[in-house]
Automatic annotation (TrEMBL):
Family matches, as SUPFAM superfamilies: DNase I-like (SSF56219)
Molecular functions per Gene Ontology: catalytic activity
Domain (Endonuclease/exonuclease/phosphatase): residue spans on this chain: 65-338
Name of the protein described by the UniProt record: Endonuclease/exonuclease/phosphatase domain-containing protein
Alphabetized InterPro entries for the sequence: Endo/exonu/phosph_ase_sf, Endo/exonuclease/phosphatase, GPI-anchor_lipid_remodeler
GO biological process, one term: GPI anchor biosynthetic process
Amino acid sequence: SRHPLCCKLQTAMRITLLAASIAITSGLRPLRRTIQHFKKTRPAGLWNDATAPTYDGTKPLRVCVWNVQYGAGIRQHYFYDGGDAVSAPRPEVEQGIKKIGDAIATIDPDVVLLQEVDRRSRRTHKIDEFKLLRERLDFPCAASAAYWRVPYVPHPKNEHVGRIGMHLCTLSKYQLQDATRHQLPLLRESRVRQLFNLRRCVLETPLVNGPTLFNTHLSAFSYGDGTVERQISRLRELVEGKEFLLAGDLNSLTPYEDASTLAKDEAALYPESNTPAAPLYVDPNIVPLWRDASTRRATYKPWTSPAPDRTIDHAFCSPGAAFAGGGVFATDGYLSDHQPVVFEVSF
């Protein structure tokens, strides 16, 4: 039999050759743009209407935080959840984005922090979901930052992901000062795999005359390798000394949950004795939305469960600010494997 190291080298060479062939056939610009995402900090896409109002702090911010699962819904059993599906039928994606827009319109937030928004990805038929949502909703200001943008992903075997562009998107009724993408620590894997995998990040958007919004989506499937802990540490550095709202899908449980109560395969996703999110809950300079077990709401529904069974979507604000409410909005069926989290925060 072949030596394991030899097999790994051959696999790495095949992937490198594939990357080179993509660069030659589709031009170097997409590959250069992909590599740029290894940079620690750079400007993000910003759409700002100078006629929009500025936040004056006289009323609480109404906020919606939602991982929309790229508008694909939960009818398909996707490969990352143990199934075979990669793409969703175009009518399902179009209808899903419409219903997501309808739900957000009903919630009527001042600010929306979205994760997993596809922009011209093959799996969602090259639909720019960010553009559709902006056209559907009345948000004059917005920002977008890619955290999975690759010209071609040769995985899984049965159907390649192909071209992918998945973004964090922030929508606001108030003017944004600017937009910055901060690179987070990557999974502990080879540089070649990192080229094709997600590059988790934070989208920072300060409101003019108001708090700074931090939108993020941390690593899944790290299986306790320390990646999420390093990402949490970076989040704490970014918010230090600022008036802020930090929210998103942290792929980590709250300190009030026990992973052993989940199904065996699901519990394996959270092998740490203490949740990686714990430092955010004990830091005296950070105020959590989920203050204790009684205020926590389940936000995530795995494929194997008929209803949400854990909380991996979180929100935090700076000292002096205060949360009000805090719950999940019941959508028309499950439009995503996450439920939208809705709350108000006063600064």
